[in-house]
Amino acid sequence: MEEPESRGEVMEEVTSCSFNSPLFQQEDKRGITYRIPALLYIPPTHTFLAFAEKRSTSRDEDALHLVLRRGLRTGHSVQWEPLKPLMEAMLPGHRTMNPCPVWEQKSGCVYLFFICVRGHVTERQQVMSGRNAARLCFICSQDAGCSWSEVRDLTEEVIGAEVKRWATFAVGPGHGIQLQSGRLIIPAYAYYIPYWFFCFRLPCKAKPHSLMIYSDDLGATWHHGRLIKPTATVECEVAEVTGRAGDPVLYCSARTPNRCRAEAFSINNGECFQRPALSNQLCEPPHGCQGSVVSFRPLEILHGYQDLNGKDSPTIQQSPLLDSSLWPEQEGGILSKSWLLYSHPTSKKRRVNLGIYLNQTPLDAACWSRPWILHCGPCGYSDLAALEKEGLFGCLFECGTKRECEQIAFRLFTDREILSHMHEDSTGPGPVGEEAQMPDKDTKAMMSVEDTPGGKACPNPQDLRPSVFYSIKFFVLCHSLLQLAQLMISGYLKSSISTVEKRFGLSSQTSGLLAAFNEVGNTALIVFVSYFGSRVHRPRLIGYGAVVVALAGLLMSLPHFISEPYRYDHTSPDMPQDYEASLCQPTTLVPAPTPAPSNSSCSSNTEAQHLAVVGIMFMAQTLLGVGSVPIQPFGISYIDDFAHNSNSPLYLGILFAITMMGPGMAYGLGGLMLRLYVDIDRMPEGGIRLTSKDPRWVGAWWLGFLISAAAVALAAIPYFFFPKEMPKEKHELRFRRRVLAASASTVSKGEDSPSEKSPGASQEKHDGLAQIAPDLTVIQFIKVFPRVLLRTLRHPIFLLVVLSQVCTSSMVAGMATFLPKFLERQFSVTASYANLLIGSLTIPSAIMGIVLGGVLVKRLHLGPMRCGILCLLGALSCLLLSLPLFFMGCPTHQIAGITRQPGNLPGPELFPACSEPCSCPLDDFNPVCDPRAHVEYLTPCQAGCTSPVAQEALDKSQVFYTNCSCVAGGGPVSAGSCDSACSHLVLPFMFLVSLGAALASLTHTPSFMLILRGVKKEDKTLAVGIQFMLLRVLAWMPSPVIHGSAIDTTCVHWAQSCGRRAVCRYYDHDLLRNRFVGLQFFFKTGSLACFALILAILRQQVKEEGTQVTVSTSGPQQQLLASGSGKKPEESSV
Q: What residue spans carry the Polar residues bias annotation (predicted)?
């Protein structure tokens, strides 16, 4: 056979080979379509083998068989033989798909791998049913593709019983390779079915993973490697590259659903790969596309590049593209032994504009060049072949003018074309990877308007720029806003707890249970979600959780719309401006009042509606807890996984700083909404004369839930566009290259290979390059969890820190829920003003305490002992500041007709005789105040008043009642409660509370560090999950109920509704203050005691460690003394 022309002759005709040759064309009349190209070059015979699938339509299920065209290369041209069907590559009743050829150099044999799929069963049907219908087969040729052997089925030999856990599988498509070691590699992928629920398979959960099929005996026997986990990867190709120490590393480029390629490396010839990393410079169109990669040696190419450009051309060091600082060093030179060439559509929107990418440093995914457009227009699958000795490359690719499957074309190009185009790109405007370049002027002219999709000329693909949804910084911004909105909706109920009680007649115990009920769903799922979070699409699940939170907010506001309008006066159903309804009407002048409705009639209407409203609110709180489960843990883990290690703390700090403003904004929103009347959407004609200072006032509590729900819904939208995995930040990619080079260097020095070591040692040695062990199933997790839980709880430091945090969280939960109500009742301030004080003083103080604690731990480099001291001092100071709170408050209002009954609950007595002739309703509530005696009456009727007087002044109306028989001098008395004489104490009280909150929050970071530094490394993640679970179970769930029950015991007058006790109208202020502040004092004392015990244990541990070190460093005499005391010498050493 005639030898090809010399290198110089080829290079002189470089422009003549810059055109496409269609090898397989669609037959429009018959509908025959050719797809899935595979290309192989055989150097000894200078032969190209071009394979494809012949299909009756373009659909996968309509594949028929494989076809082949052989091409003989002569210099820079290739002469192609006619199309030949490969009828040998068939199984009866099956269709043949995915050609994947490989050439074995020693024997000269060509192995053509493919899959045979039963009937017309699609891949999706196999994945959904979990029933594999594919067979792994190959044929071989000893004469460069002129003749082929019979088909051989390798399914049982290679896959065996494991095929039961593969929903389906496929090889290639594209070419395989032979490594320097002689191993033959066939890339493949499989849909793996994990056992998710006990012993039952869930086929719909099958996840695709790439893997390698290999042979170490020249193709006699074949085996498969481990799945490349955990990233979902499908079609892949591999190339052998050179590490920094000159050792071979196998590079894998795989298709993913994440809008960019996945790259992984193996240092044990493909048996297992490290965790794949996503490359944002290699984009994928929607649903992805197959791509091809080849490696080649660059030394001769660089010399040829300088010869081509002459003496004035840039040298290696001067070329912007050929950056010598990125080249790995090796013995005998500074150049890498291999570069990578990659072909793939360059658009992220659709399969158009086939590009050729070059990477001079294969171990660094950030060094891909901008693409050189080989074909402008629709394109699809492609396969590359490298002729490195001749400086030539071949590319077989799908293309067309309107659709990608119109033809399969072949393009032959040279190394000088690549370098010249890359040099033009590097000297042009913009950084590498920003804008793709057109092939040449002739190609631009050939691409007329009608040749491109939609009648448009081939544009510069601006869509190559990375999407904002592949930016971890944008994710941090979105997650900060989402957590801010989520904490707003979670904290809003606490800001309006007294209003909800008043509106629906709830006791504080019931409202406390309602506030704590969102922890029920959260607690039930948080540990499992944290443990199995890596298996799911985290951003999407965060989005689903946010949607549930938004629905919970809407459901929380539903009771307002299904309830009747609020009636603040029981004797005035239509709420007119009728003040005579509560006046004294002697029985001698008017008929006897109609008796109150019976309990039976009341239960059939009002009570049923009351139960429905309460049930809806409890259901909404449960949904709120369930929806909140994935938001924080998944968001934090996602940021930590894909942010650079040095940037992750900064991003998390920004996240926490923004989200900590959520509770403050919730109280602020409550302060604004509660200024509006509850029925602002259905106000009666003529309006109302209530003001926010009236004890009967109910604010628009429901409106804040609608606003918060809308904010959460808007913040949830971006999460449905974030990928399951995004590329690691670039600094991490360079670190990965150094790790790989170091690992390859270790192997080259003669140390044991990964296959010869234990799995644990291999994984530690290569820092993640070994195959990751399969995840635990649910039943395995249930078996392991109790042991880990007991081991963690037996750690005294961990247990005491958690107990101290339980005490602190109980204090915080009770204060956050009922402090607004406490301020309203104790100091007679409005609900909106109480929320404003908390949102502007207490919440910012707590945030400052958390930040200050973190700063002290970082700046002072506090160890466990000093962290314990800081926690002890913070808890002690917080406890001391709570002592003055017992004496800062207002006395109980004097309510006419209400006194204490010794030994029993407070209750109403008989009214004074002056109001007996008035026949006053027992459950009416329209308080009036005698300003001279500072005595309050429940209604004007009970004060014996017979006439009202309304006064208008300064845009403010005031109602007075006169002719009051129970008031000295006959009145007048003013409508509303009496003003408090000590409301000025609210600001000093809040100042001490805020300062105490800051000191209590000061212990947050150091106590958390005690947990992280006190448990085993492998238990840290689960220990944190256990910590949050215990805090919810022991603090956030019971504490609001405990505080609510304590507040209920201080009530002196209850409203009645259908014969049941409803909302409390008046409290004993002294008893309320003592019990509420006393509970806070109790929990602070418990926290202080726990920190004192922690400090004692730490001191004992330090003392024991010092003794052990002294014994271990002393002479034989000390050991003899130790043994003489009944201990072995070894027991006294460290």
A: 1109-1122
Q: Of 130-139, 272-281, 360-369, 442-451, give the lowest mean pLDDT range.
A: 442-451
Q: What's the confidence (pLDDT) of residue 8? A: 36
CB 253 within 8 A of CB 237: yes
Tokens for 865?
């002992």
- Note the pLDDT tens digit of each residue in 982-998: 888 999 999 999 999 99
End-to-end CA distance of the chain: 77
Query: CA-based Rg of the chain, rounded to a whole angstrom?
Result: 39
Q: Is 331 helix (H, G, I), strand (E, B) or coil?
A: coil
Nearest to 194 by CA among 181, 184, 185, 203: 203
Per-residue pLDDT of 280-309, as tens digits, reads 889 889 888 999 999 988 755 445 444 444
Three-class SS of residue 443? helix
**Pair of tokens at residue 1034:** 């022991």
User: Average pLDDT in the 163-179 region?
Assistant: 90
775 has catalytic annotation: no
Contacts of 210 (CB under 8 A, 6+ apart): 187, 188, 189, 227, 228, 233, 234, 235, 236, 252, 254, 264
| Inter-helix orientation angle 631-642/648-659, to 10° | 150
Using left for φ > 0, alpha for ψ between -120 and 50, and beta otherwise, residue 957 falls in beta
Average pLDDT, the chain: 77
* pLDDT: which is higher, 1128 or 616: 616
Question: For residue 395, what are the β-bridge partners?
Answer: 384, 411
Helix/strand/coil percentages in the chain, nearest 5: 45, 20, 35
Q: What is the largest CA-CA distance in the chain?
A: 133
Q: What pLDDT shows up at residue 771?
A: 33
User: For 930, phi and psi rounded to 5 degrees?
Assistant: -90, 105
Q: What strand order describes the sheet that includes 392-399?
A: 20-25, 407-414, 392-399, 372-387, 352-359, 339-345, 292-296
What number of residues does the chain have?
1134
For 781-890+986-1050+1071-1109, CATH number? Answer: 1.20.1250.20
Residue in the block written with tokens 């959407």: 681
pLDDT of amino acid 464: 39
Token pair 């192989």 is at which residue? 40
Token pair for 118: 């039963």
- 1076 pLDDT above the threshold of 90: yes
Is the entire prediction scored with pTM above 0.70? Answer: no
CB 627 within 8 A of CB 552: yes
Q: Are 91 and 73 in contact (CB under 8 A)?
A: no
- Out of 284, 390, 398, 729, pick the active-site residue: 398
| Options 60, 123, 240, 383, the catalytic residue | 60
Alpha helices in 111-160 (DSSP H): 123-129
Q: Where do the structural domains in the chain lie, given as residue ranges?
A: 781-890+986-1050+1071-1109, 894-976
Please give the single-letter amino acid code of residue 1007. Answer: S
Q: Which of 244-258, 601-615, 1081-1095 has the highest mean pLDDT?
A: 1081-1095
Active site residue 329: no
Strand order in the sheet with 152-153: 94-103, 110-118, 134-141, 152-153
434 in catalytic set:
no
Pick the more confident residue, 1015 or 117. 117
HEC readout, 342-387: EEEECCCCCCEEEEEEEECCCCCHHHECCCEEEEEEEEEEEEEEEE
Check if the beta carbon of residue 1007 is closer than 8 Å to that of residue 809: no
Residue the block writes with tokens 């109302």: 688
Q: Which helix (H) or strand (E) holds 263?
A: strand 260-266
CA 795 – CA 1011 distance, rounded (Å): 10
- Contact yes or no for 65/91 (Cβ under 8 A): no
State the average pLDDT over residues 1077-1087.
93
Ranges 107-116, 600-609, 633-642, 1106-1115, most confident: 107-116
Annotated catalytic residue within 381, 470, 833, 1066: 381
